[in-house]
Each structure stands twice: as structure tokens, then as C-alpha cells.
User: Fold this.
Amino acid sequence: MSSPDPTLDTANDTRKVLVVGASVAGVRTVQALRSAGFTGVITVLGAERHFPYDKPPISKEMLSSESTGEPVPLLTEDDVAKLDVELRLGAAAVRLDPAAKVVTTEDGEAHAYDVLVIATGASARNLPSGEGLAGVHTLRNAEDAVQLRSELAPGRKAVVVGAGFIGAEFAAAARAWDVDVTVVEAQPIPLAHILGDRIGAELGGLHELHGATLMTGVTTKRLVGETRVEAVELSDGRTLPADIVVVGIGAEPATAWLKGSGLPVSNGIDCEASLEVTGFPDVYAAGDVARPLHFLYGEPVRIEHWTNANDHAALVASSILGTPVPRPALPYVWSDQYGHRIQIIGLPSRGELVLTRGSAATGNLVAAYAGPDGVLVGALVLGNPRMLMKCRKAVMKSVHHADFERDLPAAS
Amino acid sequence: MEGTTTMNRRFACTTGDLDPGESMTVPGEVKIALHRTEDGEFFATADTCSHEEWSLGEDSDLEDDELICPLHMARFNLRTGEPTCFPATIALKTYAVEVEGDDVYVVA
Ligand SMILES: Cc1cc2nc3c(=O)[nH]c(=O)nc-3n(C[C@H](O)[C@H](O)[C@H](O)COP(=O)(O)OP(=O)(O)OC[C@H]3O[C@@H](n4cnc5c(N)ncnc54)[C@H](O)[C@@H]3O)c2cc1C
Ligand code: FES
Assistant:
């Protein structure tokens, strides 16, 4: 990262920084603070007992028969020693008193701070009847992936509730184990709310191409089973036998522990563009849990993407230390499904589809989206990282889609 | 024999082979990515991103004096190889580039 600025006295800054959440946003914040030269005390509280690990592999590598199924660490023990950070694992924060500047953990321990960074991310939504029923899984933590992986075997029947990215990634991983997969999606077309009908249908088509069944426009009514799931009852009266049910219906910001703190919490934690929590100096939010004023969109936006958590970590460190603000980046997310890499830049949902090249079935798809003024707002590619970078530049520079299309090489 | 620089240098391409704003991989024992900025200046870095496995010569993007990896959007300073944003935390090795007439060489 960038070298310390000699005019800022980060080395004699004795503030005590407390980070709650030991995953992508939390760990990267520590790395950014240290690489900017901050020498004060840093403590990180993490609810999980696992050594900090990365989340995207949970629905990818960790489920693959070609991997060991171990979590992918975010750093090494050696890194932790070098970062000089007190890492408290298995220590969930349960209360915040911003006036006293104290966070209390599950075991009753009080942690005083000068600066607080909230990086508690999000937790997976479950079906009301899914809690406590064996064979029903959500995918958010390493533990979830380990348990789910142990249930994958040829010929078993899996029902996936929700054809979003995590559901689709699981479906792809399960097909590779020769699991019999049915994906149930409430919308008539998967992902239509973010990518539109045409591209949603392209991506949804991948399931059928790889031997999974896709049922759309139907919801789950009830999970059948006493202690272990046996079947899924659908809203249209059909019943699907199931050994495994994976619920991929989105995530909720992990803010329950902030109840009574007075922090502005609605859909995530409201914060300024600097990630300082609105009305609470010395309290910051980063990653999936944060809902800052977005530099590009001029309104609060909460983003559940990995690079966003990385970008927030760098930004939060610069806000705390007063170092130069990092270059703002466009929203970006990738997903790996059935051997294809899908990449999305910008926010396609803020526009309409204006350009399509190729198809998902051929392994090379490009789709660009523009707002009412014709200016590009986002793009999706499948199997074409080069085009993604072209689209990224065009969105960043607010290029009109007609100009973009004219400059495209005929064969891309 | 030849001096130390020429001994380890490798022919990469001719100036006409690489358009401004483009990158390529120079094969060899250690793969090197050769980049040409929009201003026409040449730089060489390690071919593999320091974050995960990705060939920066085959696919990457140049913006001013930075190199961007398309997999997770890490950025590197082309001159120093230093990462300028997450997820990369390790610098890319950089190599000298020598242009002689139309021929471009990297010094490994
Ligand atoms: C299965 C899966 C696959 C994904 N795949 C992709 C992908 O392919 N591409 C992409 O761009 N993004 C992907 N994402 C999204 C990306 O991983 C997240 O955006 C990123 O992890 C957000 O980081 P975070 O640190 O904000 O939150 P999280 O990763 O959710 O981490 C928050 C941490 O805080 C801890 N915590 C929660 N409450 C407390 C508390 N009260 N006290 C202490 N600790 C607490 C949690 O245990 C957790 O470890 C995926 C996410 C999941 C779950
Ligand atoms: S591989 Fe280059 S940023 Fe991840």
C-alpha cells in the first residue's frame, strides 16, 4: 500500500482502535491502518472461532471435490504478528455504549476504545421453517460450507431456494458432485431485478444446460420433515423430495447487537461518504454492514460485494488517520458458476440493457446497461475479462452507449 | 562477452506490435508482462498478479501510471510495482525496458 505521509504523525498517534468483525472489511482495515504507519493499539473482536478467512470461496472452492474443503485464510499467523494486533476470536460483541465508548462482548468483557470500526457484515436469511431442521443450510460462514460439503454425494436430491448468485454457485458446485439439483426461484426470471429479463434468462439457462432443473415464478410454502428435511412444498401445490435444502434468499446486515446504542440503523448503518457513522464522530462502519452516501450515485447505497469491503477498509483507515482519500472505485462483483466467470461492473439495475454480444451458452457474453440519458451505468460479462475492463472505463467516464458501441471491435 | 544488462535481456517485441494502452506477456523462464501506457511509455512487471493467479500481460488495464488486475481490481504503480489498493498487498517485481530503434527488450 502507499507509504506513510511524513507530514501526518501517524507514528505518534496513541488512539486505541477497536474493530468489530474479523472478516474482509475488519482485517483489511487493520492492514490499511498499519501500512499507513499507525502505531496505536488495535484490537479486533470476531464472533467466529475460525482464524480470519475469506468468504467468496465458501460457495466455490470450499464445496469443490477438488479442494480439501478448508477455509481460505485472509492472512497468515505471521501477518498477525507483524500487524501487532490483538485478535480476539469467539468474542461476539453484544452491546455498544457510544457515550462511554465501550463495547461489551458475550462473556461480559468491556472493551474501551477511542475509535470504533464496525465491520460485522451480514448474516444469511433463512426460511422461518428452516431453523433447526437438519439438511437445511444457508451459506455465510466456513462452518456452513463444511457441513454442506459433507452432505454432497452423487444422486442425492438438493433443492436450492433462490436463484441469486450464492444459490447458483451452490447449484453449480453440487452438479459437479452429480447431485440432483432443482432451483426454485420466486421471480419469473432469475436475477431479473438486477440484470433485466434478457440477461437474467441467459444466466438462468446455465442451470438447465448443466443438468439442473430451474422452476421459476414459484415460492416455497413449507419444508416437510420432523428433525430432518424430507421435501419442499411449493406454492403451486407441487412437492419436491429433498435430502438437502440450500436457502439463498439474501442477507441481512448484522446490526442486532447495536440495539439500544442509538446508532442510525435501518438497512445497515447510515454513514457519511467518509464512512463515519452519521452523528457519531469516532465511530465508523465498513463493508456489507455500511450504508454510506455513495460518491457516484449521491444517495446512500449498501453494497454486499467483496471489493467494496476492501475499498471501505482503505477508506476507513484514511478517514481515521486523515491521510489522502483513496481513489473511488465503481461497484464490482464476480461470481463463478459452472466453470464460467461472471463479472459485473457499476450498477446495471440503474439502467436498461442497451447492448448484447454473444451468449452464456457459448461461454462469452457481454451486456451493457445505460440510464435514460443513454450514458452507460453498468455492464456484465461472462468469460470476457478484457471486455469488462473496457466497460469499466466507459462507465467510469460516463460514455454514451452509442459511442461505446461504435468503438467496439466487431469480434469482441 | 556482452555486459551484464545485455546478457539477461530478452527480446519482447517491436514497437509496432504493442499499441498504447495495451499489455502482453513475454514468454520465458520467468514470465514478464510488458505494458505500454496511453502516452506510449513502456513498463515491465511480473506477469502474475501478486494477489492470486492471473496473467497481467494477457488481461489487465492501464490507467495513467497504474495497472489494474481485472480479477479483483487490485491496482499497482507501473513504475515501482507497489500496490495502490486492496486486495493486493505485495508489490509486483518490476523490470527495466530498453528500446533500441524499433526493438523492445526487457531486462530480467
Ligand atoms: C458464500 C458467499 C460467497 C460470496 N461470493 C462473492 C463473490 O464471488 N464475489 C464478490 O464480490 N462477493 C462475494 N461475496 C460477498 C463478500 O464476501 C462480502 O461482501 C464480504 O465478505 C463482506 O465483508 P465484511 O467484512 O463486510 O462482512 P462479512 O464477510 O460478513 O464479515 C463480518 C464478520 O463479522 C463477524 N461478526 C458479526 N457480528 C459480530 C459481532 N456482534 N461481534 C463480533 N463479530 C461479529 C462475523 O462472524 C463475520 O466474520 C460472497 C459472500 C458469501 C457469503
Ligand atoms: S488476482 Fe489480481 S486482484 Fe486478485
